[in-house]
Amino acid sequence: MKESAVYQEILQEGRQEGLQKGLEKGLEKGRQEGLLEGKLKTIPLLKKLGLSIAEIAEELEIDVALVNQFVANQNNSKFR
Asked: How far is the C-alpha of 68 from the C-alpha of 51, rounded, in Å?
């Protein structure tokens, strides 16, 4: 049965569909990471403008803990 043309065609279609779905997931993940990276790059500017951690998180629509972590990492890297 594995040698039949119908089986081979179905197998190939399944592989192509799996590859397509994997590619779509990868692209979406890349978009999300890029969007987050852009938001993180704006944190120092917003902090300089006087916004609080909570305000920054709200404006960027990201978690307060993530903003805190980013600011802490930036402060630690300034002292090195």
From this structure: 13
**Does residue 73 have a pLDDT over 60?**
yes
Half-sphere exposure of 23 (CA within 13 A, CB side): 6
Domain ranges of the chain: 5-78
Helix axes 53-60, 64-78, angle to 10 degrees: 120
Q: Amino acid identity of 28?
A: E
pTM recorded for the entire structure: 0.69
What Rg, from alpha-carbon coordinates, does the chain have? 22
The C-alpha atoms of residue 67 and residue 54 are separated, in whole angstroms, by 8
Q: How many whole angstroms separate alpha carbon 37 and alpha carbon 31?
A: 10
Would you say 22 and 28 are in contact if contact means Cβ atoms under 8 Å apart? no
